[in-house]
Design brief:
Layout (H helix, E strand, L loop, with lengths): L1 E2 L3 E5 L2 E6 L6 H8 L5 E3 H9 L8 H17 L4 E4 L5 H13 L3 E7 L3 H10 L7 H17 L7 E5 L2 H5 L2 E5 L4 E2 L6 E4 L6 H10 L28 E4 L10 H13 L3 E3 L3 H10 L10 H9 L3 H12 L4 E4 L4 E4 L13 H9 L2 E5 L5 E3 L11 E4 L13 E3 L9 E7 L3 E6 L22
Parallel strand pairs: 1-7, 2-8, 3-5, 3-6, 4-5, 6-7, 9-13, 10-11, 11-12, 14-17, 17-18
Antiparallel strand pairs: 10-19, 13-14, 15-16, 19-20
Bound molecules: manganese (II) ion.
Manganese (II) ion (MN) binds next to helix 10.
Length: 445
């Protein structure tokens, strides 16, 4: 999608490619909006290797250095701007693949004041004048690039197609929604609920959350939203898989949504929400693994209830990076290299974890134990794989204790690291393997 607004909105962490001819004013544009250290310039890299930024004979070395700098910066989660012509499709692709490797959004900003302006600005330059023929070639390559760019999987493409548009450009940086480092807690992090509403209410009450209006806290009507008062200075975090298998999926959705709406809880998406959303959108979905129960329960509610819950699920983030980077929550966990970043791979890891792509004798995906190699800065709290007892592994903890399978519903109090559990009132779904070795079949690899 090419956007023709003056206002550029970019994620706080991304890779920006400036695209344009020599003389277009890319470096000037970069300096208006980015710090010196954020800009990686091909001219500067030429100078670094040959003391002459005009020396075209060192282009290969200069780009080797440029690529190296880009990778080092992206690895460190630093916004990076590539100030080069970026008029060759394969060169743009190299940079885009680097963005993908480090889970950064690739953005391109085309600086296109027109051929005449480029020629004029080139003549006025003190430090470096390029041959007019080169600029004419660049202009042809730019027109071609403008046709190619929409098919190149950039997250966004901004095109400043006149000197006036370039002059009036503004730029703002938007934090990624998974970056909630300013949220410091304290938190009560709750594992996979799977429709076990009664146990959820008991768990919240055990931790001092109050349900003042209802008296009978299990009371639920179609329009009612729950009013929950948390203990002072505390909020709940739900790790996803609110739905499926259990008896009261609509009630769980309604309660969690109420708490999120009221600012008393945060919630992330689980693989069962992702699947339920596909069903709600009318996409082809197998009703296995407990989805059939959710469908039955939700069809007993009215259309507006379903629409509201669909909107809620659609808005759930894949993970949350919290408390100055000291805490990370994701449904199936997350490797350090994806913390606070967003990509297809990151989302898939959050929902399904690390799988080998192969299945075990029960036909379920074989999981890799990513926590065994974890050495990141954040404590990672997750669910997804039912365990008999949560066990710390390298500052990661799975707190899905299989309530719907007759286990427990467990919360981790943060930062206290205390566990609070409520035993399941009954076994709602027979586990096919003993807890601790059950692999939540989910959506697989
Ligand atoms: Mn799950």
């Amino acid at each position: 999608m090419t956007i023709n607004l003056n206002q550029v909105e970019i994620p706080e962490f991304c890779l920006v490619l400036l695209v344009g001819s020599a003389g277009a004013g890319k470096s000037h544009f970069a300096r208006r909006f980015f710090s010196k250290t954020e800009i990686v310039s091909s001219d500067h890299c030429r100078a670094m290797v040959s003391d002459d930024e005009n020396d075209q004979s060192v282009s290969a070395e200069a780009f080797e250095l440029l690529h190296h700098l880009v990778q080092l910066r992206l690895k460190k989660r630093r916004l990076t701007v590539v100030d080069a012509t970026n008029l060759v499709q394969s060169e743009r692709q190299t940079l885009r693949l680097m963005a993908k490797q480090y889970h950064a959004y690739p953005i391109s900003i085309v600086i296109d004041p027109g051929l005449d302006v480029c020629l004029q600005q080139n003549k006025n330059r003190l430090e470096r004048v390029v041959d007019e023929g080169v600029i004419r070639e660049h202009d042809i390559a730019l027109r071609k690039s403008l046709k190619q760019l929409p098919d190149e999987a950039f997250r966004e493409i901004y095109h400043f197609g006149s000197p006036e548009k370039i002059r009036n450009a503004t730029l703002c940086r938007i934090p990624l929604r998974v970056d909630q480092r300013h949220e410091t807690g304290n938190f009560d992090i709750i594992g996979d609920i799977h429709g076990c509403f009664d146990e959820l209410v008991l768990l919240l009450e055990r931790m001092g959350y109050q349900f003042p209006e209802s008296g009978d806290s299990t009371l639920s009507t179609e329009e009612k939203s729950y009013h929950v008062i948390p203990p002072p200075g505390r909020r709940a975090i739900f790790l996803g898989d609110l739905v499926d298998r259990g008896p009261k999926t609509p009630e769980v959705l309604q309660l969690v949504k109420s708490m999120v709406d009221n600012g008393t809880a945060l919630c992330i998406e689980g693989n069962h929400e992702a699947k339920l959303l596909r069903w709600m959108r009318g996409q082809k979905t197998s009703p296995k693994y407990g989805l059939a129960e959710s469908i039955g329960q939700l069809e007993a509610r009215n259309e507006s209830f379903r629409t509201e819950m669909m909107g809620f699920i659609r808005g759930l983030p894949s993970h949350l990076w919290l408390d100055g980077g000291k805490l990370l929550v994701a449904h199936a966990g997350l490797k350090q290299e994806m913390h606070g970043r967003m990509s297809g791979k990151e989302k898939s890891f959050c929902l399904y974890g690390d799988t080998t792509g192969q299945k075990d004798e029960f036909g379920w995906p074989i999981r890799l134990n990513w926590g065994a190699d974890y050495s990141g800065e954040a404590m990672v709290v997750y669910g997804h794989t039912p365990v008999a007892m949560p066990e710390w592994q390298n500052n990661t903890l799975c707190i899905d204790t299989g309530c719907v399978f007759g286990g427990k519903l467990t919360a981790l109090r943060y930062p206290e690291k205390e566990l609070v559990s409520i035993a399941a009132l009954q076994t709602y779904t027979e586990p096919k393997k003993p807890l601790g070795s059950i692999l939540d079949e989910g959506e697989g690899s």
